[in-house]
Design a protein that fits this description.
mainly alpha
């Protein structure tokens, strides 16, 4: 299977190739090499948020679901993993955002971004479910042990299912480099890593994301959308993600009457 030529369907019809440089595999190279990757990415993309060079689609995400069927076999391989912590809603919506981001950043390896986004939270199905909300969404939740555990388990899922679907060992390790640390590592190490992180956050701005995630954090919708504006928008790495998030947040606030119901 090619790991550099999977197309990302445009918002209307047809396909556009999403190709780009390899992110590399650093898992065995140690933390110094990993830090060097983050520094190199920050140096190459020093302007933040990273400007988009392709079209930025800010329409409601439901108008452009993930358009291609090439990942259907992967979805079917992880159905069990989608049944935990709302992944059957979170992951498809995040993938749709990932495809939009790949159109805005055509230099990225779209295949890597899309597969990493589909798999990034599958590890939640292999941790103690009773601890997901109590530990993963309270206090300093980004550094909760269960967050590290779900990243490790997500890599285990990737290593289990991807080889049998024709993905190379190198590609699998590049996927794991992104999954391991997507919540707990404070910085991105590649453009592909950045796009996956932004896709993971963008779903929260859609009404479905607000409905689910506000309950996880035990917040009412108005309090949660305030948090999105203050905490999450500044975390977004790319200009396209900021534009999408802002448009979604405006629509969600209007629809949910958060200026009144608070």
């Amino acid at each position: 299977m090619s790991t550099h030529q999977t197309p990302v369907a445009p918002a209307d019809v047809g396909t556009a190739a999403g190709t780009g440089p390899a992110a590399g595999t650093e898992a065995a190279a140690g933390p110094d090499a990993a830090d060097a990757l983050a520094e190199a990415f920050a140096a190459e993309y020093s302007l933040r948020p990273v400007p988009a060079i392709g079209p930025v689609d800010t329409a409601p995400i439901a108008t452009t679901p993930a358009a291609l069927e090439d990942l259907d076999s992967l979805w079917q391989a992880v159905v069990h993993e989608t049944r935990t912590r709302g992944n059957d809603i979170h992951l498809p919506i995040s993938l749709a955002y990932a495809e939009r981001l790949c159109r805005a950043y055509p230099d990225a390896d779209a295949d890597l971004v899309r597969v990493a986004t589909l798999l990034h939270d599958t590890g939640w199905a292999h941790v103690d479910e009773s601890r997901i909300i109590s530990e993963g969404f309270t206090g300093d939740w980004r550094k909760a042990n269960i967050r590290y555990e779900h990243e490790l388990q997500g890599c285990n899922v990737a290593r289990r299912v991807l080889p049998g679907l024709g993905y190379s060992a190198d590609f699998v390790e590049r996927i794991c480099e992104i999954i391991e640390g997507h919540d707990t590592r404070p910085v991105a190490r590649s453009l592909e890593d950045a796009l996956m992180r932004d896709a993971d956050r963008l779903w929260r701005f859609d009404q479905a994301g607000i409905a689910l995630a506000s309950s996880w954090f035990k917040m009412d919708p108005a309090t949660y959308t305030d948090r999105l504006a203050v905490e999450i928008v500044p975390e977004l790495i790319t200009e396209a993600a900021v534009e999408m998030a802002t448009a979604d947040l405006d629509r969600s606030n209007a629809l949910l009457k958060t200026a009144v119901i608070r």
